[in-house]
Specification:
8-stranded mixed β-barrel; Hypothetical protein af1432; TIM Barrel; alpha/beta; 11% strand; 21 helices; single chain
């Protein structure tokens, strides 16, 4: 029996703004969109997906648009109704389009207000006949000819349909999608694309890096952390804003750095500190930069949690957390990652993993990246190399995603106290 994985990937418009996420499933020799005739494997896969979605609806869809491919079997189970119509796009493929009862259900969902997307749209009568019910057309730029793509996109635009290019995992495919003026894209290159660098290399002089290393230690020095924060107005502002947020339900206002550290506690601080400097600079950050901050926090949590199961690792959970946190710095800071890491007191194993993907740390890092990118062909091998049971990965991934969502929501919803704050 093969392992079962579920992951989500961003879908971005031409300005690199996220319009939603696609939920990808792999397992039981069947994926969401694979297979035509219902088989025992199809039903097994549907049961797996249905049960997982039932338990994890809140984790999967929270305040964002999600694209999910539903087989005929899942449609028969009325799985789309697990989700709010404002947060779900029902994706279908050829196996649904050729099934009369499944298409009848799709039209019913459309009447109820759900949006519909078609995977790998084709110039065929059965596809053209359902255009009225379609909101999004997804086009595989790896397999389709440019002239065909151009014709489909022109027809779609004339009918006010949105076109999404998928499989954009090379720069030339990204350039072609931009040239053909698709509405949105997804793929490895898209996930890592930003409009511009968010910060200059001068940002390296911030106390942020010292603070990150200080809070991640197994036995953090509270006095040192207080000193680092107190001399940096940006970090002080962010810390006090979080400490006075509604989350902590305080009777009195937090007005000093030491008091804020004690209020939040080290467990929360080490999760949040990476976002402190960013949270006060919202006007300087585009949506793409925020996504990279969330991505780094997700990688940090995932790598750290994988350490609970990985065998014979030469680093600590704290090191693994730092590996994930710092993995996107070259996108956020206008400098090569190698130059950035020279200025940060990371252990050699983590630096080698980030720069060369080498050693057992490199295997752990690659496992996190492959899961994030839905690179199904490598996940089982990498997990096996680390001695991690592959069937643990999906629940670990979504537990981390839930934690990141919680942390991010608390930071973005935090409010500063009305009274002036003092810094010790």
């Amino acid at each position: 029996m093969s392992s079962k994985y579920i992951v989500r990937q961003p879908i971005k418009d031409r300005e690199n703004r996220i319009i939603g996420y696609e939920i990808l499933y792999h397992g039981e020799n069947s994926a969401f969109g694979e297979g035509g005739v219902s088989t025992s494997n199809d039903f097994a896969a549907a049961d797996t997906i249905y049960n997982f979605l039932t338990m994890n609806t809140d984790k999967l869809l929270r305040g964002a648009l999600h694209f999910m491919t539903f087989t005929t079997t899942l449609l028969m189970k009325k799985s789309p109704r697990l989700f709010d119509k404002d947060e779900l796009v029902i994706q279908i493929d050829d196996s649904v389009i050729i099934h009369p009862l499944a298409m009848h259900m799709i039209q019913q969902y459309k009447r109820e207000g759900y949006k519909i997307a078609v995977n790998e749209f084709q110039f065929a009568p059965r596809y053209l006949a359902i255009l009225d019910s379609i909101d999004y057309i997804k086009l595989n730029f790896q397999t389709m000819q440019e002239l065909t793509l151009k014709n489909i996109i022109e027809i779609a635009k004339s009918m006010d349909k949105k076109c999404i290019a998928v499989g954009i995992d090379r720069e030339d495919l990204y350039e072609r999608a931009m040239k053909l003026q698709v509405d949105a894209m997804e793929g490895t290159v898209v996930a890592e694309k930003m409009t511009q660098k968010t910060h200059s290399s001068g940002y390296m002089q911030s106390n942020f890096f010292r603070l990150m290393v200080a809070v991640i230690q197994d036995e953090p020095d509270i006095d040192e952390i207080e000193r680092i924060i107190s001399v940096d107005a940006t970090l002080t502002y962010g810390l006090l804003r979080i400490a006075n947020s509604r989350y902590f339900s305080l009777r009195s206002k937090v007005t000093s750095v030491r008091q804020a550290i004690m209020t939040i506690g080290m467990n929360e601080l080490k999760q949040w500190v990476y976002l402190l400097s960013a949270s006060n600079a919202e006007n300087q950050m585009d949506e793409g930069a925020e996504e990279f901050l969330r991505l780094s926090l997700m990688r940090a949590n995932f790598c750290s949690n994988l350490m609970n199961y990985a065998k014979d690792m030469p680093i600590s959970k704290s090191d693994a957390y730092l590996m994930g946190i710092f993995s996107t710095l070259n996108y956020l800071i206008d400098a090569p990652l190698e130059e950035i890491l020279q200025r940060i007191p990371l252990c050699d194993e983590v630096k080698e993993a980030l720069l060369k993907h080498s050693g057992r740390c490199g295997v752990l890092y690659d496992l996190a990246l492959c899961y994030e990118r839905a690179d199904w062909s490598k996940i089982d091998h990498l997990a096996g190399e680390l001695g991690i049971q592959a069937n643990l990965l999906t629940s670990l991934y979504f537990n981390c995603m839930e934690e990141v969502n919680r942390i991010w929501n608390e930071i973005t919803q935090a409010t500063m106290p009305q009274e002036p704050v003092a810094v010790d």
